[in-house]
Amino acid sequence: MNPELARYIQRRERILDKVRTLLVERLHVSRAPDEIDPDAPLFGTGLGLDSVDAVELLVSMESELGVRLPHEGLSRPAMRTVNTLVDLALAHGRTDDVDG
Amino acid sequence: MSMDDEIRALRTSVALAKGDHITCLRIEGEGAYEALDYVVACDLFLQDGQMRPSLLLDEEARPFADIHVARDDESFFLLAEGPSPEELVAFLEKRFPAGVVVTVERCNGTLLSLHGPYAWELCTTVFGPDVGSLPYLAFYRTDDAVFFRSGKTGEFGYDLLIPTDEVATVREALLREGAAFDLALASLSALDQCALENGFFNIRREGRAGLSPLELGLQWRVSYRKDYVGSAALQARREANATARVVWAVAGAPVAEGDEVFLDDQRIGHVLVSGFSVIRGEWVVLLLLDRPYAYAGIDRYEARHAGERRPIRTLSAPLLNNRSLYVSPQRHSYRTRDESKLPPFVLPL
User: Per UniProt, which keywords does this protein have (chain A) (predicted)?
Assistant: First the structure.
């Protein structure tokens, strides 16, 4: 595999692990991390988060992954699935923390 | 009306569709919970009036039906896509635990469905605010009709179970009042394309590929805390680790089901489903990729179609920034909408 692609996948997987841990430990999603599929919906009956959790999720994303939303309009599309959170962290997260 | 126009209406206003691809069953009796709990793959922790998406799995942990299960006091509605009504009833009756007192009957009525960012407003106009304001995954029943708030398009969605002798009158009322909403009629093909664009599971497409919830990314719809039909096989597959996973992608040129996917010269998967998205202006594709390559955000893969390599780019679903995310029943109306204030369907990366 091309080294650049390998690095991207490794980084994405590392953020995915962090998001899964955050969902279990901070948001109390009652699933084992490996049960949380990347495309699982966050709200409704997906992982069962609600509007109160949304605030905690944003706070946790900032404290754990250094994610700062560049504008509020990004919050809805970014908080649809586990993978959209990973996309958000890749684009607007703290890269040193993620890579470390 | 072309399918593209049906989809444009569904994505921007309201679309009315038949519901004859859905079977509605009523499960009753003192053993209804116990019987369903043994065949439905999710935990049945539902309050009266709530519904939940899940699956019926076969003994090999492959999806047999894509379901919503809804609790109505001590009874249940089961809305299922995939098998015929006869196949569905036979599946249940064969697998319900022996000795459990339960009855299974077809629901009395005909299903229609409404989808779109302003479907709630048309529902309010025709059926009243109790229907239009239903929360997601809840249902409301009157003496003779049941209104389910669900949908698999990413927009506001309602499945309407109407007494069969009244369905023509209700349909006429929806068409009449729907004119003010630029209501369109949507085909099942249009609904399926919208489901693909929004990352919803489709039992008629990828659901028939012999995959389990592990490869399909549907573990959120199943439980690992109870025994049910298919649970042993699912657990075994989980312990063996899935070797492939579905990933969404887009392509600028046509690709088709079965096309092989490559990274350089290495085959890494194939196309499960493909359809042109008139909203995105490109092909939307569901891939089954070998696990080490099954990630969003990669633009180095290619699909081999008609003898040539075509670039594809993997993405996180949903692939659309749906209008329904931004339309609020408390603040908006189709009549006074201002499209310029809504964000684009496709956000920049």
Answer: Phosphopantetheine, Phosphoprotein
pLDDT digits (tens, 9 = 90+) for B86-118: 999 999 999 999 999 999 999 999 999 999 999
**HSE value, Cβ hemisphere, 13 Å, CA-based, for B125:** 20
For residue B279, the SS3 value is: coil
pLDDT for A75 equals 81
Contacts of A39 in chain B (CB under 8 A): 199, 217, 246, 248, 316-317
Asked if the C-beta of A19 comes within 8 angstroms of chain B's C-beta atoms, the answer is no
ipTM, interface predicted TM-score of the complex: 0.93
* CATH, residue A25: 1.10.1200.10
Supply the pTM of this predicted model. 0.95
Residue A21 has pLDDT above 70, yes or no: yes
CATH node for B241-315:
2.40.30.110
Query: Is-contact B177 B122, C-beta < 8 A?
Result: yes
Domain that residue A55 falls in: 3-99
Report yes or no: B274 and B312 within 8 Å, Cβ to Cβ: no
- Give the burial string for B321-330 (b: 16+ CB within 10 Å, else e): bbbbbebeee
Measure CB to CB from residue A84 to each of B300, B316, B343 and give the nearest one.
Answer: B316
Q: Report the pLDDT value the prediction gives residue A95, as an integer from 0 to 100.
A: 67
pLDDT of the residue at A93: 86
Rounded distance between C-alpha atoms, residue B312 and residue B290, angstroms = 16
Q: For B313, phi and psi rounded to 5 degrees? A: -130, 120
Digit-coded pLDDT (tens) for B181-197: 999 999 999 999 999 99
In total, the C-beta contacts within 8 angstroms joining chain A to chain B are 80
B253 touches chain A (CB under 8 A): no
Residues lower than pLDDT 70 in chain B: 349
Fold for the domain defined by B3-192: Gyrase A; domain 2 (3.30.1360)
Measured between CA atoms, how close is B126 to chain A, in angstroms? 26
Residues of A in contact with B220 (CB under 8 A): 31, 35-37, 40-41, 45-47
Question: Closest Cα of chain B to A58: distance in Å?
Answer: 18
